[in-house]
Design brief:
Chain lengths: 249, 249
DNA sequence: ATGCTTAGTTATCAGCGTTCACTTAGTGGT
DNA sequence: ACCACTAAGTGAACGCTGATAACTAAGCAT
């Protein structure tokens, strides 16, 4: 066993990459329903049953694509975060948030895959791989949130203003994830995420066009409000480049 | 021309109703991708091409379903609103909001149809019928918002806290719809809707389950916060029935 | 060189939206 | 009452989809 990767293994990895690459391209071109085994195989110069050597079913391939998308958006957020000094926590949170929106707007179909309505015939795998990827995504925001709180606690809402049932659920969630924050801070975290999700999802799904031509300005305004809640407005600054010029491959 | 509806016309209307009814049932059972002309025809004891006498294409039928869903949710909201005294504006807004969430949670697939990611192969009709239905939906919230403002103006955010580009867009939107509110109030309206949309969409799409078991308590807490913004907290009251027992056919 | 594993093929099945040619049933005019 | 017209519905066909079974060819280790 000199090399773990034989000639055949390397060829296999390359084929898997080609499948996912073509699948991603067709996904963005045709939309969520455009992931078709036969179309992928055709473009690869293969026949459809051959793909079953690499994925047990279409759902398995979709799961792989979703995991890749998680990886992409998380990487984009982490890179944006790490491009700033480690002690500029507020700026880091802003950068990660903007990276989240930029990726989402640039990849609307993939965003729907991760954060939208469940796919028509798709059945989530029971292994928990998707949950793990989701937790990693949430972790980027949560870690920054916790660090900002640890550095300089911000004012928290009164617990009496939170529905008692929600307090219970939040306490369970908090206990599940280590629980170093007061429950009202956990509430604030969830509430902030809901607001950011709402702004981005509405824009990406095109559900805000009845009022606005574009979503970037709304997002920035929302981000500024969230910054106020967390006491990091002094680290708020307009994004380095106009939102439409960002993004990439 | 004694009767506008001949025997054949009545039969046709009945058939259209049966088509939509079966389509709705299959939609809720199988999901968004479950709208299949052949399956509908089979259940009706017909063949698929026969359905083309009633809808020019599958997309046309989907459009009809979406319009029906708009009608349903708007009716639910209006009924909840009108069940309360006309001068209890805050209570009316709360009732309409809760009706919106109740319908959405009870009809997750239909919610995705209206407010989620665009359907895979579906092409929106260019006539503007969907836009009109959407405008009617937004009108329920907007009218209540305007009335509440007219009765007792609530504190508005400073215009300097809003992105100038957003102010421009909001002013255009405001002018388009009559424009009797200051632009900062229009912003508040949009921001409130984004927050409510976020909370409901996350719950309906199951994207909050990593933290919470259920979404009703979060929604109530969010609703209470929005009530504070609009100065109608004294009209806030817990919903008449537990949120899980509501809903219906 | 032999034997096992993997990659990929063809053939086939059931289901999908859509079109075309055709039959049947209902409607209005004379 | 009859005739012409229209709408409703059928059956066959085309090309697309995911999936399975049986089979061939290539890679690899012993």
């Amino acid at each position: 066993m000199v090399a773990e990767t034989s000639r055949r293994d390397r060829h296999r990895e390359q084929t898997v990459g080609e499948i996912k690459q073509i699948a991603r391209r067709q996904l963005t071109e045709v939309g969520t329903g455009g992931i078709a085994l036969r179309a992928i195989a055709r473009e690869m110069g293969m026949t459809a049953p051959g793909l079953y050597r690499y994925y047990a079913s279409l759902d398995d391939l979709i799961t792989a694509l979703i995991l890749d998308c998680y990886e992409e958006v998380v990487t984009a957020m982490e890179q944006a975060r790490d491009a700033l000094p480690a002690d500029s926590l507020g700026a880091r949170l802003h950068a990660a948030s903007r990276a989240f929106r930029t990726w989402s707007v640039g990849h609307p179909v993939e965003f729907g895959l991760i954060f939208g309505a469940p796919l028509p015939g798709y059945a989530r795998p029971p292994e928990g791989a998707l949950e793990q990827a989701g937790a990693r995504f949430a972790g980027v925001f949560r870690d920054l949130f916790v660090q900002i709180w640890a550095r300089r606690p911000f004012p928290l809402p009164d617990e009496s203003s939170i529905d008692p049932r929600l307090v219970e659920q939040l306490e369970r969630y908090s206990a599940r994830t280590g629980g170093r924050l007061p429950v009202t801070a956990v509430y604030l975290f969830v509430a902030c995420w809901v607001r950011m999700y709402g702004a981005v999802a509405m824009e990406v799904f095109g559900r805000i066009r009845w009022a606005l031509e574009e979503g970037g300005a709304l997002f920035e305004t929302e981000l500024r409000q969230l910054a106020e809640l967390l006491g990091i407005t002094e680290e708020y600054a307009l994004p380095p480049a106009p939102s439409s010029a960002a993004g990439g491959a």
